[in-house]
Specification:
Length: 219
């Protein structure tokens, strides 16, 4: 598993995340970032070209050395990009030290998503914002059945990716108040393509909501 995890898997992740259908999500989510930005799971650096001029610094957290090596070679903005070799469950930054936290197709792979969200809330400054686009639990019973059935095998071959995480309630119970969320299927296999896109602010934990309570939008 060492060669697969360290060499093959990073290249497969990079290839899959180059899907052009993901570009509009990147443009909207990354384009809304500002100030000092912490990107959780920068991967191979595919988001870096989308940061706008209102960003002063990008802190690119990524635990995979293989992906970081690719990210260092990726096109990047003119402002500083600092790579952080660390887990999202233990972010090595001071409290209230960043303006924006960004996650793009990352929460699905973090072993302890609740701990990671607690850390994201800790490092956000008052008035800071979490920007996210994630795939996760679908509202349709038949699709959810496939997500639950496939996830045990899918996790083993995809670096820990869960197809069935309830993204909205996970974020809310991580101590965030959802400001905006749009959901819908992207073109492709439905168990892998139910998207949650939006923003959230730090707040005390809210009661979980079912995926069906999310605002629906065609994507």
């Amino acid at each position: 598993m060492g060669i697969y995890r360290d060499v093959i898997l990073p290249r497969l992740c990079d290839l899959s995340m180059r899907n052009e259908r993901l570009r509009p999500y990147r443009e909207r989510v990354i384009g809304a970032a500002q100030g000092r930005v912490l990107e959780i799971g920068v991967g191979s650096g595919l988001n870096l070209p989308f940061y706008g001029p209102v960003v002063g610094e990008v802190l690119a957290l990524e635990p995979s050395a293989g992906l970081v090596a690719m990210a260092r070679e990726a096109p990047r903005p003119d402002w500083p990009v600092s790579f952080i070799d660390a887990s999202a469950e233990a972010i090595p930054l001071d409290d209230k030290s960043v303006d924006t936290v960004v996650t793009t197709w990352t929460l699905c792979t973090i072993p302890d998503a609740a701990a990671a969200l607690t850390e994201m809330r800790r490092v956000l400054r008052p008035g800071g914002k979490l920007l996210f686009v994630e795939h996760g639990l679908a509202p349709d019973r038949g699709v959810r059945w496939w997500q639950d059935t496939l996830t045990p095998v899918w996790r083993r071959i995809s670096g820990g990716c869960h197809l069935n995480r309830p993204i909205r309630s996970t974020i809310e119970c991580g101590g965030f108040r959802i400001e905006r969320v749009e959901t819908g299927y992207m073109q492709g296999p439905k168990p892998m393509t139910f998207m949650y896109e939006g923003s959230a602010r730090p707040e005390s934990c809210a009661p979980p909501r079912s995926p069906g309570s999310a605002v629906r939008a065609s994507i």
